UniProtKB/TrEMBL annotation:
Keyword Protein biosynthesis: no
InterPro entries reported for this sequence: Leu-rich_rpt, Leu-rich_rpt_typical-subtyp, LRR_dom_sf, LRR_domain-containing
Keywords, alphabetical: Leucine-rich repeat, Repeat
The keyword Repeat is assigned to this record: yes
Pfam families attached to this UniProt entry: LRR_1, LRR_8
GO CC annotation terms, alphabetical: cytoplasm
Gene3D superfamilies in alphabetical order: Ribonuclease Inhibitor (3.80.10.10)
Organism in which the protein naturally occurs: Schizaphis graminum
Protein name, entry field: Leucine-rich repeat-containing protein 57
PROSITE patterns linked to this entry: LRR
Length: 227
């Protein structure tokens, strides 16, 4: 039977695990413990909406709402100034709100396996982000990237519909892993990546041009699929 509420039990370190509870909505019990919850795990439920009062959970640093039925984020989410990790894969989200840029401490954003078609340029260029996972969506194009001041270590864009990517992606100073696998790329970025980077362009069946400037890195670090 699907449930709306359940008894609240905080784990060690103010971490709340509410996974696999068949919840239909965000439990209002959280309001009574708003100053005690730092990390919230509420995966594998049936929640369609994050409530506006989520902004009252002012001490939240991590939110995991994987595998629910969310289609959007409330504006109030961006008032959680201490939020560092936002994970909402396997939902039905179609748009990334530009207001996420208000989350100045956000280092990890995982919106994989949703229905996203576009990435706002100001979100892609958030200087706090280290991990961006937008794999397995419906993204066809990327906005321009402005590498100066960006902190990215990992960007996952595999399983989309990308035909091309901005050349400036190759200028990200800290990038360790960039996955562009399983897209529709016609060519790889023209500039050389840092030698330590692993760039995955596996399973791009239309890829017909790889710039000479990155051939060595491709041989060493890439899993490449060419027809």
């Amino acid at each position: 039977m699907l449930r709306k509420i359940t008894a609240m039990t905080l784990g060690i370190g103010h971490i709340l695990h509410w996974n696999d509870r068949n919840l239909l909505e965000f439990p209002e019990d959280l309001k009574q413990n708003k100053d005690r919850v730092y990390q919230l795990y509420i995966k594998n439920n049936f929640i369609e909406v994050l409530p506006g009062w989520i902004n009252s959970l002012a001490k939240l640093t991590h939110i995991y709402v994987d595998n629910n039925k969310l289609s959007t984020f409330p504006a109030e989410l961006c008032e959680l100034k201490g939020l560092e990790v936002l994970c909402a894969p396997r939902n039905s989200i179609t748009e990334i709100p530009s207001t996420l840029t208000a989350l100045k401490r956000l280092t990890q954003l995982n919106l994989s396996r949703n229905r996203i078609r576009n990435i706002p340029g100001d979100v892609l260029n958030m200087p706090s982000l280290w991990l961006l996972d937008l794999s397995h969506n419906e993204i066809q194009t990327l906005p321009e990237v402005y590498p100066d001041g960006l902190y990215y270590g990992e960007i996952l864009l595999n399983g989309n519909k990308l035909i091309s990517v901005p050349d400036n992606l190759s200028r990200l100073k800290n990038i360790e892993y960039l996955s562009l696998a399983h897209n529709k790329l016609l060519y790889a970025p023209a500039m050389a990546f840092r030698s330590e980077a692993n760039i995955n362009i596996d399973h791009n069946p239309f890829l017909n041009y790889v710039p000479a400037t990155i051939k060595y890195i491709i041989i060493v670090n890439l899993f490449i699929y060419l027809n």
